[in-house]
Ligase-associated DNA damage response exonuclease (Salinimicrobium oceani), 350 residues
Amino acid sequence: MPLKNQKKPLLCFDDKGIYCEPAGVYLDPWKPVDKAIITHGHADHSRWGHKQYITHHTNVPIIKHRLGEIEVSGKEYGETFSINNVKFSFFPAGHIIGSSQVRVEHKGEVWVFSGDYKTEDDGLAVPFEPVKCDAFITECTFGLPAFKWLPQEQVMNDINSWWQQNQSEGKTSILFGYSLGKAQRLLKFLDPSIGKIFTHGAIENMTEVVRPFAELPETTRITRETKKEEIKGGMVLAPPSAHGSTWIRKMVPFETGMASGWMAFRGARRRRAVDRGFVLSDHCDWQGLLSSIKATGCERVICTHGYSEIFSRFLNEQGYDARTADTQYEGELAEMNSKSEDRDDENEQD
């Protein structure tokens, strides 16, 4: 599908976000706009202040939980809706529950914005579906050949074995993961036969929102009234912002672990000062990015957040018309920072 000659691309980048001028709508804007099409619920992609939000229907309760009362409409995957004669539709991104790619079609030209995505079926999010297009805007959070993910089953077996070992030594296991997406993915495959699973308030609140869309094990929220003896030997799911806080003191003795793609780098584990690092990402590895781009059949690729310069250079060497574009998306860096939505409900923790 050759790209048509036109003065402006169908999707362009400005100081507010990714703009579709013919429709007068933004995709995942980082500044307040009148109309925003949102790929998923993470804070760097769904921000407060837009007049109108359009997203996948599963993401509606997620962003309402985060942003409060907003004007938002939900769409099904594959459902076409038109804005000023521009056709839009959502397709599964496989990133987290409710995550989408956005397909944009106008005058015979098709663009796809990936949002954040991964190719491994995690058993929770609707699996990634390649969408044929002329131009593909892709994240490349882990766009280096060094990133190659192990199968999820193997990583979760390692986590459950770690928990069992800690329990045999009289220790509590504290596992850090982002409150939306990563925490529920971990929860789904933790083995409740080992012991009880406890949660930080931020994770419990988000899990309550997600439960209608996923089968998840029982959890117990940690409150001021929770006794140290109750938690001993259990598994505690907490956001990265809880690491080093007074909240975890009642859990001594404990071991800490973090689940993130960045744990592939030894230095990242040292910087986070955790006992164990588990390499588990909600983004594509190097091969996942390449196979996804190939499956779209696109000619043009725009690389955003991550190792965009290196990845774009490689794509050009492979014959693509590739370039980079600056955005305010964080990818999985949010997991390494003690900020953002992970601070939900910290005021009710000890």
